[in-house]
Structures
1.
Amino acid sequence: MLSAMQRFAPLPDGAEAAEGSVTHPAGFLAAGVAAGIKRSGRRDVGLLVSETPAVSAAFFTQNRAAAAPILVTRDSCDCAALQVVVVNSGNANACTGAQGHADALRMRELVAGLLSLPEEQVAVSSTGVIGAPLPMDVIEPGMERAAAKLDHGGGERFAAAIRTTDRTEKLGAADVELPSGAVRLGFAAKGAGMISPNMATTLCFVTTDAGLDAATWRRLLGDAVEASFNRITVDGQESTNDMVLGLANGASGVRLGEEDLGLFSAALRAGLLAMALGVVSDGEGATTIVRLSVEQALDEAEAERVGRAIADSPLVKTAVYGKDANWGRIVQSAGMSLSPDGDRELVCDVVFGGVPVLVQGDPVALSQADEEHIAASMADAELDIGVVLHRGDASSLVYFSDLTHEYVRINAGTRT
Amino acid sequence: MLSAMQRFAPLPDGAEAAEGSVTHPAGFLAAGVAAGIKRSGRRDVGLLVSETPAVSAAFFTQNRAAAAPILVTRDSCDCAALQVVVVNSGNANACTGAQGHADALRMRELVAGLLSLPEEQVAVSSTGVIGAPLPMDVIEPGMERAAAKLDHGGGERFAAAIRTTDRTEKLGAADVELPSGAVRLGFAAKGAGMISPNMATTLCFVTTDAGLDAATWRRLLGDAVEASFNRITVDGQESTNDMVLGLANGASGVRLGEEDLGLFSAALRAGLLAMALGVVSDGEGATTIVRLSVEQALDEAEAERVGRAIADSPLVKTAVYGKDANWGRIVQSAGMSLSPDGDRELVCDVVFGGVPVLVQGDPVALSQADEEHIAASMADAELDIGVVLHRGDASSLVYFSDLTHEYVRINAGTRT
C-alpha cells in the first residue's frame, strides 16, 4: 500500500515501507473476527490493543449528526490515554437515538471488562449502514472471540474487520531510522466503501512504538491528518462516523527527541496520506485521483473554498472520468466561489498535467505535442491540475476522485 | 408546459394557460433561425423584439467568470428599457477573452443597426460550449435572416433557437383576467441541456403586454425569479451565462393598478416556476423533481444552507434516483451544514411524501401502509421531502433533480 502510492505520497529518506499493518510496531495486539453483522460472513469486529499504557490522539467528524460511538469516544473517554480500540463494520450505529448510545456504551463496557482496563481507555468506532439498531446479540459474542484471539500478528485481520465494501485493502507499515534509533509505524484505514448502500465513512488507525508525550503525538498526528484526510474529497459528504485515532506506546524503547521529529513526522504524514489516497482511489467507483493545486488566491479561505468547489463539482468530476481536459468547468466552479471583493471578474490560468491551457483568461493554442501530453496525463490514474487565480498569494491542495457510472450504480442501489 | 406543471406550479384563479410563447402577448415579434452554429442544423439564433418601447428587467448570473454577453448586457445596456434580445445557442462566448467581448459587442451593434434602435436597448445572450470563439462568419448572416423573419407568431421558433440539447421544450403563455382588464404573459426558457457536453446554462425570457413602470416590473420579476430560478438546483453549478430577462410593453392597453398586482404577480410567478421546474425535470438525465422543505432552522442562512446541502448531495440525489427513502443521507447532509452554535447535536424529523420516517432523531417503525405510501411517492415524478430541524423558526424551499447514469453519460462525453 505505502509503496503503491509513491508519486503523490513518497516516504522520506530514512523511512522504508514494511509488510503488515497496525501490529507492525512492537507491543500491539490485534484481532478481527466475523461476528455475523455482515451478511457476507466477512470479518466485522476488530480489536486493537496496546500491551502497555499508550499516549493517544483522536480526531472526529465535525458532523453535528455524529454517530453514537463518536459521541461516546469523544465525550467520555480519555482521548490522550486510550489503550484499546474496538470497531465494528456493517452497522454505523448512527441516527439510532438513545438505544444506539446505550449500545455504544455497552460495547465499551464489555471490552473494558474483557481486558481489565478502565472504560475511559477504550475507544469505540463503527461504520456501515445508518439508522438500524446494532445487532448486539452477535456483537457481544464477537467481541469476546476477538479478545480471545488478540495476537501480535493480527493487524491485517483487524484491517479487514474495519472495511465494508472497499474494493482494496488500506493498510501499511513503515520502518523509520531516526537519529535516536529505529521505530515503527502501522496503519489501517477504510473507505469509501458502502454497505447496503449508505454513506461512506472513513476510519483510520495508526500505531507506533515510538515514545513521545501525548501533546507531541497529538500535534504530529493532527498535522498529518490536516495534510491528508482533511485534504481529500470523494463526494463532499462528511460522514457521521469519521475517526482517525493514533496510539503510541513507546515499546521500541526509543524516546523521540527534537532531532527525530522531522523525519518521524514526514514518515507519519506520508503513511497517512497514502491511506487517505487509498480511500480516494477506492472512493465509490473512482478511476482517477486528481491532485488539485489552487494558487494565488486572495486568502486562505478563498483558496480552500475554490479548491473544494472544483473538487466537488459534478461537472469537473465527470469530465475527469471522461478524460476531457475541460478547463471551462474549472473556471466556472472557481468563478462561483471567490471571496467577495467587489465585482472584479476572474482572470485565471489553468494547467493540466503541467501544460497551461488557459493563461490570464485567454485560451492557449495547444500544439500537437501539448495535446498528446495532456491526453497522456488524463489517462493516468494520478492527475495534476493547477489553477492560478492571480488575486493574492494564498494556496491550497485538494485530492479528489472522479464521478463515474459506478458511483451512481453503488449509491442508487436500494438498501436491503 | 404551464399545464404540465400543475402540482408544483399551479396558475392562480383568474389566469389560464394558453398556447404559444413569448409572442403570445400583443406587440411582440420573434424569430428563430438555423445559422449554422450547431452542427445538428437546428435553430441557433433567436431574436425577440417589442414593437414599441418597453420597460425591462434583467437578472444575471453571480458567477465571477461571467461570459462576454453577460458583461455587455449588464454593464453597457439600459437594462430598464431594453426593447430587443438577440440570443445564440451552440456557443456560450464564455472564457473567450478580449475577442469574445468584441464579438458580443458586434452582435449588439449589428442587431441595433438592422432594427434602427440604440445599442443600449439591445440585450445579448449566448449559451453553449465554453472557451471556443464565436463563429461570427455564420452568426452575422444568421442575425440578418432572423431580423428579416420577425413575426407575431415567431415565439416558438425563438424558444427553439435558445435551446441546446434540452430534451423537452420550455415555453408557455397565460391569459390573465385582471380587475383592470385582460393581459397576457409569454415565457421561453432553456436548460439544463448540454452542447458538446459542457456546463448547463439557464436562460429565460418573459414578455407581457401589461403596462407598468420599470421599477414595478423589476420588483415583480425579481420576486418571481427569487421564488423560481433561485430555488432550483441540478448540480449546484452556477453557470457563466445565466440570464432571466423580461419585457413589458403595455400593448394590451391595460395599465396595471394596485388592485391588479396580486393576481398578475401570482401568474408571473407560476409561469416562471413552471419554466424553472421544466429546467430541473430536464436537468441532465433527471427522472424526478424533489420539492425539499427545510423548517425550524436557526436562521434564514441556515435554512438555505441546509436546503442546498441536501439538494446538492450526490448521496441524496442517487438515493432519489434509486427510489430509496434514505433519510440517513439527509440527516448527514444537514448535520454538516448547520450554523455554528456550540456543540449541540442535531435532533431532527424527516418526512417522505408526507410520512414521518424520523421524529426527534428516533427512527419511526413504519406500518405496511406507510411503506407503501412512501414507495408510491418515490415512484412519482414529483416528490416532497421535509426536514424539521427543531432549532428555530426559519424555513427554505429548494427544488432539485436526481443524479442518474444519464447525468454521468452526458457529462463524461468528450467534447468534439
2.
Amino acid sequence: MALGKVIINDVGPRDGLQSQSKILTPDERIALVTALLQAGVRHIEAGAFVSVKAVPAMAGTPEGLAGLQGSAGSADAVFTVLVPNARGYDLAREAGAKSVCLVLYGSDGMAQANVRMNRQQAESMAAEILQQARTDGVRVTSTIAVAFECPFDGPVEPSMVSELAGRLLELGTDELCIADTIGAANPLQVRFLMSSIAGRYGADRLSCHFHDTRAMGLANVFAALESGVRKFDASIAGMGGCPFAPGASGNVATEDVVMMLEQMGFDTGINLDSLLRAADLAKELTGTAPGGRASAWLRHR
Amino acid sequence: MALGKVIINDVGPRDGLQSQSKILTPDERIALVTALLQAGVRHIEAGAFVSVKAVPAMAGTPEGLAGLQGSAGSADAVFTVLVPNARGYDLAREAGAKSVCLVLYGSDGMAQANVRMNRQQAESMAAEILQQARTDGVRVTSTIAVAFECPFDGPVEPSMVSELAGRLLELGTDELCIADTIGAANPLQVRFLMSSIAGRYGADRLSCHFHDTRAMGLANVFAALESGVRKFDASIAGMGGCPFAPGASGNVATEDVVMMLEQMGFDTGINLDSLLRAADLAKELTGTAPGGRASAWLRHR
C-alpha cells in the first residue's frame, strides 16, 4: 500500500542539540548530520545564525553549512538554518544559506521570553525578512511557536493562529510550520487547527512540529496527517526540549515517526536501520539523548 | 468543552498482573482494585477463572470477586473476570460473577498457542458460553485477540475480523473488544477496521484494547475514538505484555489514556491524581510495572 510521500525534517542537529547539556564540537555536529543523510533524511535543520556567546552549541554554523552544502551526496538535501532576526538572516545569506527558518509566536509571553518582542513585532520582523528572502531566492520556513498553548500565557486561540498562518502564506512563505513547542497539544486540537488551516489555504505548504512531553506526539502526527499535512519536524533520538517550559521533554523522535509512517504505508525515503545508527551516534555524542519511545521494539524486530 | 463519556476498563489487576514476574497475594490484588475504585474507575478486569497451577497470579479469584462485589462503594462497578472455557464459565457463575470476558482469535496460530484450538473451535466454544450467559443474565465481553497482526501467522485480514465481530454482536455479546494483543497496529489500520465495524454494526457495543510496544498506543486510541469507539481497555502503570509475542511491551497505561481523554474534553469520571496513586501502588507491589509514558509530566504538572 503506497499512500504517497511524507517529508521528515530532522531538527536534531539544531533544536535537539541546543537543549543537550553537553555542547558538541562543530565536527561532531557535522558527523550527526552526515549520519542522517546516510539514512536518507533529506531535510535537516543544520544550525542557527545566533550569537555564539549566547548559544555556544551553534558555534561553527557558517563553516559547517558551507561544508555540508558542498559535500558529495547532499545535492538533493535541504539544510535549513534558524535566523532569529535580520542580522541573523544577513549572516546566513553571506554564508550561502539556501533555506532559513523564521520563528513567529502564538503568544506575547513566549515572544517576549525568546526575542524580547511582542508577537506583532516578531511578525513584522519576520515579514520583512521573508520579503527579502523572496528577492534573494532563499527558501523560507515560517514556524509558529506555541501554536496551541504557551507556558506563560496559557491556551492559544486557534483562529488567531489560523489568521497568522494565512498572512504568512500570502507573503509567500515556502513552508508554514505549526509548532507545539511545549508538547501540550492533544490530537483533537491538532485535528481542529490543521483541518481549519488546510481547509482555508490548502495543505501543500504546511508542516507540523510536535513534542512528546505528554506521550501524544505520534497521536498528534496522525491527527495532522489526517488533516492533510505531509511534512513533519522530528528529532533524532528524541532530543529537544524548551528552556521556558519546565517539564517539556524532547521532540517526537525521528525513528518513531518514520516507523509509524512506513508501517502505515507512507514513503519517507528513510532507512530505519541506518536511522537507528544515527540515533546511536546522537546518544553516544551527547550522553543525554533519550532515544525514541519505540527503541526497544525497533531494535528487537 | 464536554464531548461525552468514555469508559475505561482497567485490565491491570488481571491482564497486567499476569505478566509481572512477581506474583501478588490475593489481598494485594484487591488493594490495587480498591485504589482503582477510589480513583473513579468503574470497569475493572478483576481476575480469571483459570487453573491456579498454570496461572498462580490469579489465585483467590473466587473469594476476591465475592468480596469486591459485596464491598461498599462498588455498587455501580463492573468487575469482569476472564473465562477461558465452559469449565471456567461454570466456576465464574458459581462464584457469582456478573460479567465475564471470552477470548476469540484473529489467527489460528494464537488460538493454538493460547487454548490449543483453531479459531473456529474457539469461536464455537465462545458462542456456546455466550448463549448460556444470556440465559443466566451474565454480562459478556467478547474479545477478538490479535485482531491486527499475529506473532505466528502475520497480518490478519480485516474483513475476517469484521465478520467475526458481526457474528458475536448478533449472538448478543454485551461488548465486543477489538484487541491489538501484541501492539503491532498502526492508527490507519485502526481507523480502517473500527470504522468498518462501526459502520456495519454501530459503535455502541465496541471497545478497543491497545498495547504501547511501538509507541502508537495513544495514536490508536485516538483513531478508534474518531471511528466512534467510546470504551477502552487500559492497564494501570502500563503493566502487561504477551507471553507469545517477544518484545511486546505493556498495555497502554490507564493514566496516559485518561490524561489524553480528559484533555480532549471527554469525561472519564476518573481523578488523575488518585489514579497516579494507584499507579504508584502497582509499581510498589510488583516492582516491575513500568508506569505510563507521560508519568514525568503528569507528576510535574
3.
Amino acid sequence: MLTKLSSATQEVIIGDEGPTVLIGERINPTGKKKMAAALLEGDMEVVRREAIAQVEAGADMLDVNVGVAGLDQAVMLPQAVQMVMEAVDVPLCLDSNNPAALAAGLKVYKGKALINSVTGEERSLGAILPLVKEYGTAVIALTMDDEGIPTDVEKRVAIARKIIERAASMGIPAEDVIVDCLTMTAATDHLAPGTTLEAIRRVKAELGVNLTVGASNVSFGLPDREVLNSVFLTLVIGAGVNCPIVDVAKVRPAVLAADLLLGRDEYSARYIRGFRQRQKALEEAPQQAGAPG
Amino acid sequence: MLTKLSSATQEVIIGDEGPTVLIGERINPTGKKKMAAALLEGDMEVVRREAIAQVEAGADMLDVNVGVAGLDQAVMLPQAVQMVMEAVDVPLCLDSNNPAALAAGLKVYKGKALINSVTGEERSLGAILPLVKEYGTAVIALTMDDEGIPTDVEKRVAIARKIIERAASMGIPAEDVIVDCLTMTAATDHLAPGTTLEAIRRVKAELGVNLTVGASNVSFGLPDREVLNSVFLTLVIGAGVNCPIVDVAKVRPAVLAADLLLGRDEYSARYIRGFRQRQKALEEAPQQAGAPG
C-alpha cells in the first residue's frame, strides 16, 4: 500500500518496499522553552531554522506544531506552514489538536499534506475526517478513543480498524490513513513497548496500512534515552513502521542501517551516501569534534 | 524452551522469557594478528586478559577459539579452556572445526559446555553429535550443508530441522541445539540480511529452539560497521535470537535496551544497573573521556 504526499513540487511515497520516510519532529514547542518563548513573541525565525536544519539532516517530511498556550493556533499554524514552505520543499505534516487551525493551515498549504491526527473518539472523527476529505490529505490515526489508550493489543487494532472503516465510508482510501499504535514509557510499565510492537505487527498484517510512531516517549523517565530511542526505532521499523516521527539528525544513521539490513537499499547506495555526508559534515566542522553533548 | 549451560559453579539459562545471553566473541585469533602471534609463541596471557575484560563488560558466556594455522588445536584448546576457567567463572563455548580438539577441550571442562558448531553436512553430524552426547553438552547448529549456505530461507529451516531431528534420534533434546541461521554481508547482496531475519523467525515459530547469530559478518566491506552491527543485533533479537555471539563491550547498552523494550526487564532493573556501571567506569577512567576511538 502506497501513501503519496507532496509539497509544491516534491512527492514522497511511503510504502513497505521503499526506504523509511523520516518525518522531522523538531518544529514543536512542547517541552522546548526557547521555541515556545520565541513563538509567543511572534518570532518565527526559529521555525525556519529548524526546518532547514532538519531537511539538511535528511528529513523527508516535517511535522509542524506551533501549539503554545495563549496563542491562536488558527493564526499561528498557517503562518508557520507558510514560513516552512518558503524555507524548504518537503511535504508537511500539520500537527494540531485544533480543527480550525488545521483548516486554516490546509488553506495555505501547497500540495498534499498529512494531518496529525485523528483518534477513535467520535468528536475527533467528526471534526478531522471531513478536513481530510475536503483538502484531499492523508491523516495519522492514533489508536486511542474516549477511554484513552488501551493497554491491550486487541483494542488498539480495533480502533485502527474503526478509523479506517469510517474513513472509507467517507471515500477516504486506506492508503491515506497512517496508523500510530502509540508508545508509552517503559519506565512505568515494562510491557508497554512490547504491546506497541505487537499492535504494529497486527495492524500491518491485518489492515495492511502504513504506520508511523513517535519513538521518544518510550524512554521518558529513563537514563541514556538516545540508546533506548534508537533501539526502539529499529524494533518498530523491523515490525512494520515505515514513516516514524523522529529527531532526524540523531536517528538517521541507524535508520539507514535498518533500511539496508531489511533489503530496502540496493547496492547499499543510500547507506554509503549517508555515511559520506556525515563524514563531510564532520570535516567541515572540525571544531565541533569531541565537544561535549 | 530453556537451554541450560554451566561453568564449575554458575548456571546460565537461555530462553525467550529471560534476558538475552551474551556470548563474548573476542577469544578468537581470526583477523587478530597480535593474538595469533601471541598464541604461536605459546603466550596465553592474551586469552586470560580477554576473558576477564569480557566478563567485566557483562559477558554471560565466552566463546573460546584458538585456531591458528600451524598450532595443534588438540593441545591448544584444552590449555585455553583451562586458562579461561581459572580466570573467570562463566560457561564456555568451545569453538573449533577440529573434533579431536573439541574432545580434548571437553575432557578438561568443568560444567555443561556449548560446542561451536555442527552443520548439516554428514561428516560434521557424524563427528560432532557423538561428542554432544558423550559429554552432555549443547551445540550450535549452523544452517549450512555440503552445498554451502543456502540463499533461500526454506533450505536453511530444513537444515535446522534435519540437525534437530538427527540429534533427537541420538537422545539429544531440542533444547540442547541452538540454531545459527548465519549472516552474510549486505555489501555483496542487500537481500542477505533479510533472508537471515526471515530464517530466524521461521526457525523460532516452527522449531521453537533457541537461536544464536554472529552479528558482525553483516557489515563486512561496509563503512561505519558498528552502527550496522548494532542495528542488525537489535533486529535479530527482535526476530528471536536470544544468545548472540558478540563483542560484549560494544553492544551491551543496545542489548539491555532491547531486552527492556521487549518486556524482559521488570522495573528496568538491568537497564538502569548497566547504565550505572558504564557511568562508574567512565568516572574511574576520566583520562579516557573524549579520547579518539
